[in-house]
Amino acid sequence: MDFSALFMQFLSGLSQGMLMVIIASGLSLVFGTMNILNFAHGSFYMLGAYACFAVVTLLPQVTGNFWIGLLVGPLAVAGIGGLIERNVLRRVYSRHLLDQLLLTYAFILIFDDVVKMIWGIDFQSIRMPAVLSGKLDILGRSLPHYDLFLILMGPLILAGLYFLLQKTRIGRVMRATASDAEMMLALGGNVRVLFNRVFMLGVWLGGMGGALISPQAAISPGMAVSIIVESFIVVVIGGLGSFWGTLLGAFIFGQFNAFGILFLPRMAIIFPFVLMALVLIIRPWGLLGRPESS
Amino acid sequence: MKKERLFLVMGMALMILGFVSLPQAAEPIKIGYVHSLSGGGSVYGKPCLDAAEIAAAEINAKGGVLGRKIEIIPRDDKTKPEDGLREAKDLVLSKKVDYLMGTVSSAVALAISGFAKEQKKIFCVATAQSTAITTEKGHRYVFRISTNNSAYCRSAARRAAELPYTKYYLIGPDYEYGHSSNKEFWTELKRLKPSVVLVKEAFSPLGAPDFKPYLSAILASGAEACYTSHWGGDWIAFAKQGKAMGYFDKIKDIGQDHGNMESALALGKDMPEGILGGSHYPFWALKTPKSEDFVKKFKEKAGMYPGVGAAGGYAIVYSLAEAIAKAKSTDTEKVVDALETVKVDTPVGNLAIRKIDHQAMWPFWYGFTKFTPEYPNFAILQDVKAYDPALVYQSEEEIKALRAKQ
Amino acid sequence: MKRVLLRILGPGPLGPVLALVFLIFLPLAIGESWVSLIVEMMALAIFATSLNILIGYGGMVSFGHAAYYGIGAYTYALLLTKAGAPFLLAMAAAPVLSALGALIIGWFCVRLSHIYFSMLTLAFGQIVFAVTLQWYGFTRGDNGITEIAVPLLLQSTLRFYYFALVLTAVCLWGMKRIVDSPFGKTLQALRDNPLRTEFMGINVRLYSLAAFVIAGAFAGIGGALFAAFNHNVFPTFMHWGKSTEALVVTLLGGMFHFLGPAVGSILLIFLDKIVTSYLRYWSFVLGILLALMVLFFRGGFAGYVMGRLNAFGAKREGSQ
After folding, report:
1. What range defines the domain where residue C160 resides?
2. What CATH number corresponds to the domain at position B177?
3. Please, what is the average pLDDT of chain C?
4. Do the domain assignments include residue B56?
5. Model confidence at B14: pLDDT above 60
6. Residues B139 and B185 in one domain
7. Measured between CB atoms, which of A232, A266, A281 is closest to C108?
8. Does residue B125 sit in helix, strand or coil?
9. Cα dihedral value C71, C72, C78, C83, nearest 10
10. Within this chain, do residues B264 and B115 fall inside the same structural domain, yes or no?
11. Interface of B with A in 20-39 (CB under 8 A)
12. Which pLDDT score, from 0 to 100, does residue B21 have?
């Protein structure tokens, strides 16, 4: 196993990890600010992929239709998320954890069938956007341009989030609400609207993840389920609600997968869960989480 | 308050609806069809049902069998054995179907097969491919009118033995299907061409969308060819990511799902050319009058070309019809005997059903993917070749040995 | 009418005894297909009621409870097929091994609370599932173990139904005694106020672990019963989908009543059967139903019924 092979493995793990950063940060953000673990996050990921697919199929002759899909799709999904938060999810904030989980699980079931009603059960697929179809030659091996794009998108979106949280007023309000929602309310903050916007942002991130992976994978109703457990693993490892934790967790997850395949292929399925269990046993709040978030 | 009342009323209405049973005509021959409408196998379940309904309609148009019409009653197994068994029980005990057919998932097929054995009801397997269904777990009442795992793995091995490659990588989905497919392929290839070398074997979780680490591992391994038992969504993701990485230019990829319509249609223009793929029903090459007629009718009904599920569904209904006609009765024991001796005219040709394992001698073709002007939206397999079924299905001795180990 | 219902559904043995009598004579009136369905409901009822010991009575939301259901089912199946053990021994061994599994896994889980507890139970549940799926040599992987023979005595659906009825009645009675006992009361106190309970000198972790193990044992019986009835086991018995099925059923029926999960089991399987005969979109229907229950009928079906009856009862008393 020479260096170039190991480096390629590292890069493929990195591209997977950076995609997971986008998806998992949506989950983490919602939990950190609103204390809701959105079980249906995977469904929004799936909807993002389907929304992008819808745009591409509605505008078959338009060049750059994937980019339009990437722009419009997650926004549409975020809109749906906002409606759900306002009309349905809001009612269970003060309630038991089980209520929130079961309600969001109900949405998984509903969206599964909604997607089938609209697009049927067949596998769907989007072509790679022309401008990113090439590959880069590194050390005698090929890295697809699209993977490079994903490796860059992850940190880019994360940087945008960071800027939002640290440098803008709304970000400060979000962080304040995350640490003490009651106080925010007492200080006259419009917590309701804030929660709605945060949820929409979280959903947007999930949908964006789905749209980003759509040229590389099959779009099918089963997408939601496979990603939600992986997202859980990432946020648990990194720390629920921790910004940097999500980045670290996603990175570790991607690398673990990439190198696990090389060295211990038989254990590949169990590894992520064992890692999750280990973190929860040894350090439940994750590598970079705060102990009081329990 | 109002909402609660409404809810209660709706609930009661639903329950009353449940007790109202539809009038049952005593006349038709009922075939209970259990397939996947949800879950991982749903993409194969629906075409199989469509094809079965086409066959039933054709037969009924000519007066049915023994003067009775064929009725197909479909149910969803949700790709879970517990649910599939529950539906099969309901079909047999409550709807009183005469025969059972179906399933995509081998687990569901095995669950229903056990029940069919107890109830002495004929169960014809359409798409589920595990050899265990007809070998170790085979019995008098289960039939498979489709290919099975050993058929396409050994066909692949035979075709691969004709190619110049010696260093192989094996990859597949991490469950029984993936493991046994890889094993069957490798055992047969090694037997036919002892000079081949296994570089490495890997498995990926079923349904996971990211194959890049696997692809780069294969590229780095020094293998010349790779056998992929991935299917459906996994194969689509593998193909797209592989193509982007230039994988197919460096490694000769071989796989049984590459020529199946369900995935080929979804991949469309993204299918890599020149890879060795398999197909249960290469209608583009067969072009017999029967096949062309079926393709036309299927396209009209389902809106797509027939794939893995379709040909099987069509063949089963016709097989049952012929067997009933030959036995001059719908009695299970007589129909079983008849099924063992009929030769059914199907879109893939004349099929006989072998007595020892009730497996139809359905051929399996391999060819190289290519885009052609006749089919602009998807790749077909060129230079398709199938081997004598006697060479690719397990022999009687093998089956007896497997059953003895039970 | 409501008066009579109140007497029956209130505390006391009248209700359960009547239900038992009803169930004994029911098979005379319905077809074999329905009898078969009721056996499934019974297995699910045992499983879900055991989960409710954790959720409703203990306040611990477990996402991996199906692991013990599955361990019980596979213990039964493997003992019967590989070791040639007698039927009753295999059935008896199921709760023992699932209790053992619950002990090992629970020891780690009870040290956490809330979301972390739930996540860890999920992780362990998936590990158990993955191991079962991959260990082909032992468990035959996803092809499962099929055609598991039951003794001649239980081969007919009707006879098995009565066996299941007895087993279910015994299990439910057993679980009821446990939750009504001092142990059960302490468990509920723990759920309501863990800090206070700890101050009173109760070893919170020990009690939680005990509840976890008890719940696991009964789940194992449910799994073994289902395996015995279906004559097969598959790794899907342990998947988190099965765990959520128990959660859904508990919510549907009502987690604040002992028989809530049992009621939910009846409702879910019944609805599933009805809806899938007519509609293709069962997930959609279930999702809507679930959402409605969480939002408006928090106490589930049982909670709703009891609430209305109790209101009636109070009104009557007031008017007198």
Report:
1. 2-319
2. 3.40.50.2300
3. 89
4. yes
5. no
6. no
7. A281
8. strand
9. 130
10. no
11. 37-39
12. 43
Kindly state whether residue B404 falls inside one of the protein's structural domains: no
**Farthest-apart Cα atoms in chain B, separation:** 78
Q: Is A83 on the interface with C (CB under 8 A)?
A: no
Same domain, B75 and B159: no
The whole-number pLDDT of residue C315 equals: 67
Answer yes or no: do A98 and C247 touch at CB < 8 A. yes
Q: What is the pLDDT of residue C195?
A: 83
Counted domains in chain C? 1
Q: In chain C, which residues have their Cβ closer than 8 Å to the Cβ of A91?
A: 295
Q: Which residues of C touch A273 (CB under 8 A)?
A: 123-124, 126-127, 130
Interface contact flag, C147 B137, Cβ < 8 Å = yes
| Closest to C127 measured CA to CA, from A229, B26, B232, B360 | A229
Number of H helices, E strands in chain B: 16, 14
Question: Which among A229, C165, C51, C278 is positioned nearest to B22, based on CA atoms?
Answer: C278
Residue with tokens 């910004």: A243
How do residues A185-197 score in pLDDT, each as one tens digit?
Answer: 777 667 788 889 9
Min distance C178 CA to chain B CA atoms (Å): 31
Structural domain boundaries enclosing B161: 152-279+364-392
Number of domains forming the structure of chain B? 2
Residue B128 belongs to a domain = yes
Same domain, B205 and B157: yes
ipTM, two decimals: 0.88
Inter-chain CB proximity A5 and B202 less than 8 Å: no
pLDDT > 50? residue B22: no
Spell out, as residue ranges, where chain C has pLDDT lower than 70: 10, 313-320
**CA A38 remoteness from chain centre:** 11
Nearest residue in chain C measured CA to CA from B90: C33
**C237/chain A closest Cα distance in angstroms:** 17
Q: Would you tell me which residues 274-293 of chain C have a C-beta closer than 8 angstroms to some C-beta of chain B?
A: 274-278, 280, 282-283, 292
Residue A239 has pLDDT above 90, yes or no: no
Q: Cα separation of B351 and B341, whole Å? A: 10
What's the CA gap between A176 and A183, in Å, rounded? Answer: 9
Q: Who among B78, B81, B89 is closest to C234 (CB)?
A: B81
